[in-house]
Amino acid sequence: MKANNVLYVGSLIPRKGVMPLMLSVIMWNMFNPAKIKLIVCGTGILKPLVIMTSRFSNNISFKGYQSKSNISKYLSQSDLFVMLSKREAFGLVYIEALMHGVPVAMLRDESFSRFIEDKNMGLVVTDTSYKSLFELFSSEIPSIDQNKLIELKKVFSRDSVLKTYKELL
After folding, report:
1. Is residue 55 part of a domain?
2. CATH of the domain at 86
3. How far is Cα 158 from Cα 161, in angstroms, rounded to an integer?
4. In b/e form, how buried is each residue of 114-147, taking b as 16+ CB within 10 angstroms?
5. What pLDDT, on the 0 to 100 scale, is given for residue 41?
6. Do the bridges between strand 5-9 and strand 37-41 make them parallel or antiparallel, or are there none, so unpaired?
7. Which residues contact 18 (CB under 8 A, 6 or more apart)?
8. 58-84, pLDDT tens digit by residue?
9. For the residues 17-22, what does the mean pLDDT come to?
10. Are 103 and 96 in contact (CB under 8 A)?
């Protein structure tokens, strides 16, 4: 399956990669019959630029800051979650997407990109160039099987995380 419905949730700041993502979606949709719909949720210093850029395409919808319940709704409608963040310490939003069964796309060598590749729970790109993002858009999106989802929920459950913290203390 290819990604038709893509979601970005995060701060609207340069290191999160929202602008290269939006511009790549606009360019992709200009030259490809299979259109990508992108929903962008978040707030930050790039908000005015994100709003202006979203007006160039009927396939990009800027939603601004959203509640957790709305984010869950958008995740349930998405084929792929994309955040091309540089220097991400962990990226809880990636885990939230995976917990909803949505594969993720991220930059290689960031936070847990090796985990994503090893577990085949998403796609990893080398950079935010048009070439890399067009390769992402034309790639087959892996589906997350139920066994992987159960394993993920065990690893990142509240009880499991608390146990790990207690062991560190």
Report:
1. yes
2. 3.40.50.2000
3. 5
4. eebeeeebbbbbeebeeebbeebbeeebbebeee
5. 98
6. parallel
7. 8, 10, 12, 40, 42, 46, 50, 84
8. 999 999 999 999 999 999 999 999 999
9. 97
10. no
